[in-house]
Every structure is written in C-alpha cells, then in structure tokens.
Design brief:
563 residues, alpha/beta, Glutaredoxin, 8-stranded mixed β-sheet, 7-stranded mixed β-sheet, 13 helices, 26% strand
Length: 563
C-alpha cells in the first residue's frame, strides 16, 4: 500500500497543508472517466482547468498529500499570467508576487550588461513576476477544488498504465490499497522523472550538459531591488556562474554552479553551503549579514524532448514531455503553454467537435515549440555552462572583452521564454488575407493586448472558445456571417463574436468594444471596416481577413477543426 508522508514539509516561510488521502472505500464504484491526469504540477492542474473551461471532466491523481517542496519555478512571464488569467488565478499571483523587468550581468565586479524587458500601458501584466511554486500550486489547487468538473485525488500513486484500443486502464495505489480506473484518455503530467514515460520506454531527443547547479532558498534581509543578478567567474567560484533572485516573504533564491567533479552530496553539506553563501553575500557588499536556509537541491541543465507527445491514448505535457534548463525562465512557463494548448485540443476531440487527428496537431505544435526553445536555450546554456574547452575559451573571451568593449555586451542577453508562434500550423487558414496585413499578430501568433480603459483590457474579453474579432462601425453583424456563427454554435462549437470600433452595441455581437482612438485597429494592423481576426481557443491567430464574408469564415472554421 502506498503510504505518502503525513508530516508537513519543512519551511521557514510557507505553511504546508497535508491534505487527506482519497480512499476508494469512501467513494462509490468507479465508472469510466473521460480524462485522467497523472501529476498535479503546473501542467497537470492547468490542463484540468482548461478542460473544465470547455466542459470536460477530469480526475487528477497526485501521489503526495501536499504541494511541492521548495521554490522550484519562481519566475513567470507575461504570457503565463495571461494563461493563468483564463483559469482564474492570475489575480492571486499578481497580488502576492514581485514584478520585475531588469536583469544585471556582472564580471569582475563590474556590471557589463543590463537587460530591460519591454513594458507599456497596453500590458496588464509585468514582463516577469517572481513567486514561489508552492504558492502557484496552492492557487491552482484552490481553483481545481472549486470546479465541479475536477476530481482531485491526493495520495493516489499510479502503479501501471495499460493502453487499450479505445482508452487506458490505470492501476492506482492508495493508503488502503489499489483500485483500477478506466479512462478514454490519460495525460502524463508526472514531471521530469516521469514514471509513465519510463514504463513506456520512450526516448527523449536532445542534450544533457555537464554543468550542475546548487539551488538554495535563503531568508536574508538585503536592500536590493527585484532584479535578476548574474555573476560570471566570481573569485569565490572561479570559472563558474552565480544567479540571484528576490522572492516574496524575505526569501532570496541563489543558484551557483559547482566545480567540475564535485558531488551533489558534498555540495549540499551544511558547511559547504554556508561557505559559499557567505562568500556570495560578501561579494555583493553584505558580508556578515545573517541568513537562514529554507531549502536546497542540485540540478543539471538538460535540453530534451520527446519526438511525439501523443503515443496512442497517452498524452504527454510539461516536464514529462520535455526537459528544459532554467536559464531564460522556460520550464513552468513552457508547461503552461503546453497545458493551454492541450486543453482545447483534447476537449474538442472528447466532445466530438473534431477528429482524433486534432491531437496530432497538438503534438506537432508543441514539439516544434520545444525544439525552438531547445535551440535558443542551448545557446544560453553553453554560455552559462560551457560544455567543452572551445566553448569555454569563447565564453571567456566575451567576458574579458566586455570589460572595455560595448559591442560584445549584448551577448550576455539570452532570449527569455516567449510564446511560440505556430506560423506553419495546419490549422491556419490557407485562404485568408494573412499576407496582406502589414502589422498585427500573424498566423499562429498569440494575441496582442490593448488597454481599453481603467482595469479593462482586450484580452479580458477573450476566451472560452473561438473568438471572432470583427472590425466594424456598422449597427449589426452581416446576416450571412451570423448564419455561419449560428450554424457553428448549433454543432456545439463555442464561438464568440466581438465587434470592435462601434460606439453603440452592434447587433449580433456578444461584445462591442468602442475603440474611439483606433488603438485596437492600429495594434492589429486594420486599415478599414470589414477586417476580422479568428482566434483559436488558445487565443493564437488562425485566420485574418482584410474583408470577411460568410464563405471564408466557414472555410476557416472547417480547416481549424479537422474531422
């Protein structure tokens, strides 16, 4: 019998809650489920919440009785916050997190580069937000618990997954013994050490790097702003890299690279941790400042992905599907994008609105995103942790030149996580006017936000299904267009019509946005009335038109929902 620990995880700042285990004897006999999700990390819970938004029930199986230990993922991007807004937790994240937009790189005591993430009045969220993963998981769990469509089962460990012709059979162990659960689909969101991936003998593609880092959360009072600090080749850690981030509740995250050959056991000895953290504090001018350890671990940088996320009735997402280095805040932020994409793809298949081939599109798009990230992350990883003598010589040359030469300093700046643009998605409409637009989000791009008023932004009005943005000053949506909309809705396709540009409510539109100053039009590259955008349920553009008619809308919808 599975016996998860009932002792709260130790922490000097986060009060862990031990939840009661879900026991089969306390519940009726198990019927077949549409979706079972293994793992309650960021990708698992957001997948469940996205499925619920589309009316699909799921069961979440979590082997432990409490949220994860340690800060883990701490930096969340603007796009992640937009996704979390859709599932109802962005406000709690913003209220309790620390926003920031500047990063500093230092070499031999000199700041050699300062990164500035763009931010303007049209952005509801800051480019980056720091908050510990425990809080993020707590907020997501509360949202899951509030949903009637999500059955959350603590203390349920998956022992075996057997694929069948039209579903999966899952053997689940609990503190009172095992039970069997059958489902149409299983989402493997069980993390970087995915037991399901291992049991299926699936091989990942990519590279693992030799460089290893200690990650430590310490409580210390430092009079420093919320900005990323990166130190290259410090005297106390020669040839290696050190990172620092401020977290809420007086906690600082410290990551420092280990010398070659040092074991994890040696690195995590209290005396080793103390010596290095004391040296770091002395380096930044705060020698002797008292500090307290909360949590620590060791990790390696890896850039790996499965080549296919949908092998049969099992669907992989998050770290179970790919392993990405932390440099550039890619891990959890990529997982959110996975989950948002998976949620609508799977929901539409479950509800019969599209054929199972739609899930192949999820795999193609997200594998492509992972490979793009791996290519970019590889560059930053090779700079942070040079994998060979040649890369180290090149890195050291850049470091040395940066002290006096301005032109090399931008080489310190690696691309941070950003949403993938599905430029070549098979769901993009081949018969629209994408090529005629000179501005605005193109095929496969995420939407661009626009501030409409006080606490009112364009993205606040999107979500729940397909969104049709019609740019018009007319009193009503044309009858032929509305007929296509009604026909789609009659088939169960969620489709919202948003009229942009009219001063008064537009007949037929679900929402009318005035846009008196033309700011939405400008952001979307619209030159005249009659233009339109069709956004997928994950808000990525799948069609846009200079002029829209019923035939073209019908064709775009059919193309986006292959049978």
């Amino acid at each position: 019998m599975h016996q998860p620990t009932t002792t709260p995880r130790p922490s000097i700042y986060y009060p862990y809650t031990v939840h009661p285990a879900w026991l089969p004897s306390q519940h009726p006999a198990q019927g077949r489920k549409p979706v079972v999700i293994v793992g309650s990390g960021p990708s698992g819970m957001v997948s469940a919440l996205e499925l619920a938004r589309h009316g699909v029930a799921s069961v979440i199986l979590e082997s432990e009785l409490q949220v994860s230990q340690g800060s883990r993922a701490i930096v969340f991007t603007r796009r992640s916050m937009e996704i979390l807004q859709q599932v109802g937790v962005a406000h709690r994240m913003s209220s309790n997190g620390l926003p920031w937009r500047f990063g500093n790189s230092f070499y031999r005591g000199q700041r050699v580069f300062r990164m500035e993430a763009p931010h303007d009045a049209d952005d509801r969220f800051y480019p980056l937000l720091n908050i510990q993963q425990q809080y993020m998981e707590e907020y997501l769990y509360d949202a899951c618990r509030a949903s009637e469509l999500i059955d959350f089962r603590w203390g349920n460990r998956v022992e075996k997954v057997e694929q069948q012709a039209a579903g999966v059979q899952v053997v689940v162990d609990t503190p009172e013994g095992p039970y069997t659960l059958e489902a149409d689909w299983l989402i493997a969101a069980d993390g970087g050490r995915s037991g399901i991936r291992t049991a299926m003998d699936l091989q990942m593609e990519g590279a693992s790097y030799e460089g290893r880092f200690v990650i430590a959360d310490i409580r210390v009072d430092l009079p420093l702003p919320t900005e990323r600090l990166a130190f290259f080749d410090p005297e106390w850690n020669p040839g290696n890299t050190v990172l620092m981030h401020r977290e809420p509740h007086g906690i600082w995250r410290v990551d420092y690279q280990l010398p070659e050959g040092e074991t994890a056991e040696d690195a995590l000895r209290p005396e080793s941790l103390k010596a290095r953290i004391d040296a770091l504090l002395a380096q930044i001018g705060h020698a002797g400042v008292p500090w307290e350890m909360d949590w620590n671990s060791v990790y390696s940088a890896r850039t790996l992905t499965l080549p296919d996320y949908v092998p049969g009735r099992v669907i992989f997402t998050g770290d179970a599907a790919h392993l990405l280095p932390i440099f550039g805040v890619r891990g959890a932020n990529t997982a959110f994008q996975d989950a948002q994409s998976l949620g609508w793809h799977l929901a539409f298949v479950v509800k019969g609105l599209a054929g199972a081939g739609l899930l192949a599109n999820y795999s193609r798009e997200r594998v492509g995103a992972a490979r793009e990230i791996i290519e970019e992350a590889g560059k930053s990883t090779r700079f942070m942790t040079p994998p060979s003598r040649g890369f180290r010589l090149l890195r050291d040359a850049v470091l040395s030149l940066s002290l006096t030469q301005e032109f090399v300093r931008p080489l310190y700046h690696w691309r941070t996580s950003r949403p993938h643009e599905y430029t070549h998605s098979q769901l993009n409409s081949p018969g629209d006017d994408n090529a005629l637009f000179k501005a605005g989000p193109a095929h496969g791009a995420p939407p661009q936000n626009v501030r409409l008023g006080a606490d009112d932004y364009l993205l606040d009005h999107l979500g729940g299904g397909f969104d049709l943005l019609v740019f018009t000053s007319e009193a009503a949506i044309a009858a032929p267009l509305m007929q296509v909309v009604q026909d789609a809705r009659s088939r169960g396709v969620p489709l919202k019509v948003i009229a942009v540009g009219a001063a008064q409510p537009v007949a037929g539109a679900d929402v009318t946005l005035a846009d008196a100053e033309g700011r939405v039009r400008a952001r979307y590259g619209v030159q005249a009335n009659g233009a339109a955008y069709l956004l997928r349920p994950d808000q990525h553009v799948c069609a846009r038109w200079v002029t829209l008619d019923a035939t073209r809308l019908q064709a775009a919808l059919q193309h986006a929902l292959p049978q």
